[in-house]
Amino acid sequence: MSVPKCPHEGCKSELGVESCKKFLPPMLIEMLQGRIKEASIPVTEKVYCPYPRCSALMSRSEISEEYAKNAFVGSERSGARKCIKCHGLFCINCKVPWHNAMTCSDYKILNPNIPAEDLKLNSLATKNKWRQCGKCNNMIEHTEGCWHMTCICGHEFCYNCGAERKNNRPTCSCPAWDVRRIWFDNHGDFDDDDLF
């Protein structure tokens, strides 16, 4: 998202958040600031607080390691970080609240169950045939066009099978698009005889 432009016809000036405070309610100003911050952080740098009551967005570079370094020996290797909003400790590697006195491997062995929220998302993704980017794990929905996808992180892959594209070429043998889907979207019911 970019900074909004002046709504006056022909004016190309950008509206700063400060100038919008004069006519937007505080809730919308806060939302605008959040959207601008979200757009300014590269996908691979985004970190969300794992505490449900917080869920603050942070960049990897702004996460405070100081408290974690002072509180835990070797924390920079273990992944302990402190949320900039709620100040809760969490593991940057596991994306969960801090697992004290436990390595990430031990935590994963002792907590093999996927959280209910993740199960719901995975179920919704399966139902809607969404794909997950192999690089940044963002969910992607194919709405039209060929199977060649470029995620917002820049990773290119085949939506049909998930194979990565290398040197601007597919590494799979999937067709470029689904003929049945194109026909159905434009004509309704599909019959194999419609191809010929």
Gross morphology: flat
Largest sheet: 3 strands, antiparallel
Low-confidence stretches: 192-196
Kindly, what is the distance between the CA atoms of the first and last residues, rounded to a whole number of angstroms? Answer: 45 Å
The largest sheet has its strands arranged as 3-4-5
Number of helices: 7
Give the SSE string: HHEEHHEEEHHEEEEH
Domain RING-type: 1-178
Keywords: Metal-binding, Repeat, Transferase, Ubl conjugation pathway, Zinc, Zinc-finger
InterPro entries: E3_UB_ligase_RBR, IBR_dom, TRIAD_supradom
Pfam family, one: IBR
Structure explained in plain terms:
- It is a single chain.
- This protein has seven helices and nine strands; from the N terminus they run H-H-E-E-H-H-E-E-E-H-H-E-E-E-E-H.
- The radius of gyration is 22 Å and the shape is flat.
- It has helices at 17-20, 26-40, 66-71, 75-78, 104-110, 116-127, 179-187, and strands spanning 46-48, 57-59, 80-82, 89-91, 96-97, 131-132, 139-140, 148-150, 156-158.
- Strands 3-4-5 form a three-stranded antiparallel beta sheet. Strands 1-2 form a two-stranded antiparallel ribbon. It has a two-stranded antiparallel ribbon with strand order 6-7.
- By secondary structure, it is α+β, with helices and mostly antiparallel strands.
- A hairpin with a 6-residue loop joins strand 3 (80-82) and strand 4 (89-91).
- The protein starts with 16 loop residues before the first helix and ends in a 9-residue tail after the last helix.
- It catalyses: [E2 ubiquitin-conjugating enzyme]-S-ubiquitinyl-L-cysteine + [acceptor protein]-L-lysine = [E2 ubiquitin-conjugating enzyme]-L-cysteine + [acceptor protein]-N(6)-ubiquitinyl-L-lysine.
- Pfam families: IBR.
- InterPro entries: E3_UB_ligase_RBR (IPR031127), IBR_dom (IPR002867), TRIAD_supradom (IPR044066).
- It comes from Rubroshorea leprosula.
